[in-house]
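Hi V.,

You were right to ask for the full record rather than a summary. Here it is.
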Amino acid sequence: MRDRHDAADRFLGANLVFGVYDISRTPSQRGVPERPDILTAEQIEHFAEMFTPGMSPQERRDPDVSPLYADLHDLPPAIFTVGTDDHLVDDTLFMAARWELAGNQAELLVYPESPHGCIGMPGVGGHWFPRLTDFLRRVTKR
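Predicted structure:
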């Protein structure tokens, strides 16, 4: 949106919840270390192949399909959320760090012993929804 449409200023904030930011597959996507999760390493591999058929891991690092490799300057504040048992934990940790290193505001919520989709769990959702609401209030007041 920033580069192709000059529209980054139309976004006040980004709610980035357990996303795939590297289609070439981070270690946690590959099942390293092994962890129980409702989303398996095999499913992620299948989805990556369906989304980028025939592409090599190097080709999958193109910023158009793997935003972890993009130039992330001048983006709105973002809130990143993931559970420690999610196979996408590396994607979220890496992306939040890169977002902040590019000079953007980043808030990171990591839920211990929580799988993919953890925001739907009562113990996590009860903490996450108020944090998200607070984030949205802050960014819409800018």
